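Note to self: keep these together.
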Amino acid sequence: MIGVVGHEDLPPDTSVLVERELRTCLERYAEPAPGLVRAGTRPAAAFARAIRAAGRDLVALLPAQGAVPAPLPSRAVEQAREVMALAEEVRLLAYDPADRDACVRADEALILHCDRVLAVWDGSPTNGRDATAHMVAYARARGVQVEVVWPAGAVRTPVQTVRTPVPVRSGARTA
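Structure:
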């Protein structure tokens, strides 16, 4: 199987570039291996479109609580719908999609079922919010072939920082 992991904070223009690059990667692989994705991420949706365009089967992993699909965060629903519509097979995987650590474990489980992983990764280290660097290292440590996909012009959505105002004590001077 060929899996995909990667940054989830891709703007739509970058997703188009990534999908084009994923298609190019898949054209180079002679083996007709199916694709494996964790539904609900931008890289998964781009990969799902690319793998289906290459005429390959797609298996989607959907989060579950017991034997019931788990609700996805609202930001992931559109991508998950698209992936599931393109998949020949949907498998339930026990993890909480709202828990970052559970998502990391789900991606690790995905990697263990793959011979090759396409990593949509800008080369940045793990930052506590994004674990793509960890996934690349995890796959490589287990002998899984990794191909980094980061096309020219690709960017990530900047993180919005929220400033918390500092309370001013009564009678204190402000600048």
